[in-house]
Amino acid sequence: MTHLNAHIRRATTVLSLLISLSLACSCDDGAVEEYHKPTQESDTYTLRFCANIKGLNSWSGQYSVALACFAPESEYAETVKTLHDTDDDGDRDTILLTGVGTGTSTVEVALLSPLRKRIATIASFELPADIAEGDTIAIDGGDIEASMFASINRFVFQDNNCSRCHSGSSPASGLSLSANVAYANIVNVPSVKSPSTLRVKPGDADSSYLYRIITDENVGSHYAHTGLFTDAPQQAFIDIIKSWINAGAK
After folding, report:
1. What gap in Å lies between CA 216 and CA 14, rounded to an integer?
2. What pTM was computed for the model?
3. Residue 113 and residue 76 in contact, taking contact as beta carbons nearer than 8 Å
4. pLDDT reported for residue 198
5. What pLDDT is stored for residue 144 in this prediction?
């Protein structure tokens, strides 16, 4: 009888263990690993971009000009092809972008950071809203000026309020930065504030008055020009100006 009771107790213990293991393996308490369905990739298409993009060979430094596709309200490019080595012969080049997501809304010739963040848009083109997977879309970009100085002139001298004071019949410090005369008025031209210093000394940014006045509040001007470079894109242009000068101020 004693042996029979022992066998019954062992059988009851084994049955209890089996029930416990069954409950532990149920989905309710998370003991079973959850299955994640792989994320479906976006539908893609091919973009054929035709344009004469001038001035690409003038670029140096960490920033680059690229053909880039952007999704709405995003500052980071989805698809990118860096542009370089154009011969500037006036002929249009065809650039192919493959694997472009159908969720993108614009294709741009843009100035990008090393992390593919948009610094400035040189030219922008809307993409059709009804692009289907596998389509090939053609965009005619025409003639686009994308040289390093043209970008500095446009996004710093004109768009960043420099020309507000440095234009007209009596520009500040005798320096006009109007778009058509800015280059001639700064490269190898002595500064009025510091006649022994060139506004831009090709090959030497640290000795150029332009670079010094946008990076040092104590240069001697009554107006702190460093305040014009407070947001991220404009701060990037400080490095761009330095690279442009050190590369010869072409």
Report:
1. 81
2. 0.77
3. no
4. 96
5. 95
